[in-house]
Specification:
By secondary structure, the chain is of the alpha/beta class. Helices cover 24% and strands 25% of the residues. The chain is built from eight helices and 15 strands. α5 runs parallel beside α8. The two termini are 39 Å apart.
Length: 318
């Protein structure tokens, strides 16, 4: 029977919701054990949050000074050293997981299954290809650990439950010193994470400038939402590329998605097809975004957004 190791994503203080979605995928295997590894410099607070995820068996709190920053080069050897006790190693298909898990797979000498969207068997999984236009079933060997990333848009987070045991673990593994953490630049750490937020407000090229994109930030803050952007807006330097939504950006599945001034190219639609409710605002009545929108408004965004801001009043928290 399967024994699953899930690598927790966190910022040192708060657990990222992606971890709860990985646990949801792991539970579909009906394993005898789901252990969640928290790699940290201290991590007591994060481990306590993890311990309350429904369906897990235990938490492995792996302390090491090098784990103060989530560097793939230092985490991968530690994950690989734990993997021998498990049949499956899961990480989120987020920026964190996409950086880390291929290194883990390489150290274990196995291939990686990316973007698992459903479980078809203990070693059989379904994943999207061709920008989500086709679904393939892949099967991995059973004689070595299976390494996979879990598609966030395909799973809901598990609920909370009574706490499970937390084991303090010290690994006898050499941590590479050739990579070191220098600094982290974040646009706005107070806004929800784009890949796991329940509400997202995204802007496109129609905003016209980085200055005008402040309207998107303002509306997102009113709604307690994360901020996203089309590739056209990123290419036009309105925002940084970490906000890009779509085939070459982030695949998301919020409950509510605002597409403002976004035409709806197929590459963008790939990133939002699993959203619950899509609201589109565009002055072009023939924009492709209206074909997928649940609510569409043909109007000038520079008139509509200020009116929405006035109607919504003060910003709210997520």
């Amino acid at each position: 029977m399967a024994r699953v190791l899930v690598v927790a994503e966190h910022d040192g203080a708060v657990l990222n919701p992606s971890t709860a979605k990985c646990v949801s995928c792991a539970r579909d295997l009906h394993p005898e054990c789901i252990a969640v590894a928290v790699f940290c410099a201290d991590g007591a607070a994060v481990a306590e949050q993890v311990a309350r995820l429904a369906g897990i068996t235990k938490v492995l709190r792996v302390k090491h000074p090098a784990n103060a920053a989530p560097l793939a080069a230092t985490l991968a050897p530690q994950v690989a050293s734990l993997a021998s006790a498990y049949t499956h190693v899961f990480g989120p298909s987020t920026t964190f997981g996409k950086d880390l898990m291929p290194r883990v797979a390489a150290l274990l000498g196995v291939g990686q299954i990316s973007d698992v969207m459903s479980v078809a068997g203990e070693y059989r999984f379904k994943r999207p290809v061709y920008a989500g236009n086709a679904i393939v079933t892949v099967e991995a060997a059973t004689d070595r650990p299976l390494v996979a990333t879990v598609r966030m848009a395909s799973y809901a987070a598990v609920a909370s439950a009574g706490p499970v045991p937390i084991e303090l673990t010290e690994l006898q593994t050499d941590v590479p010193s050739h990579t070191r953490f220098v600094e982290l630049h974040a646009g706005n750490a107070e806004r929800p994470d784009l890949q796991t937020a329940s509400r997202v407000v995204a802007g496109g090229r129609a905003l016209g400038s980085a200055r005008n994109f402040e309207l998107i930030y303002a509306l997102a803050d009113r709604l307690g939402a994360a901020v996203g952007a089309s590739r056209a807006a990123v290419d036009s330097a309105y925002v940084a590329n970490d906000l890009q939504v779509g085939q070459t950006g982030k695949i998301i599945a919020p409950e509510l998605y605002f597409a403002i001034g976004i035409s709806g190219a197929i590459q963008h639609l790939t990133g939002i097809k699993d959203a619950g409710t899509i609201v589109a605002i565009n002055k072009d009545p023939d924009a492709p975004i209206f074909e997928v929108a649940d609510i569409g408004l043909v109007a000038d965004l520079f008139r509509v957004i200020p009116e929405l801001l006035d109607a919504l009043g003060a910003p709210r928290s997520a």
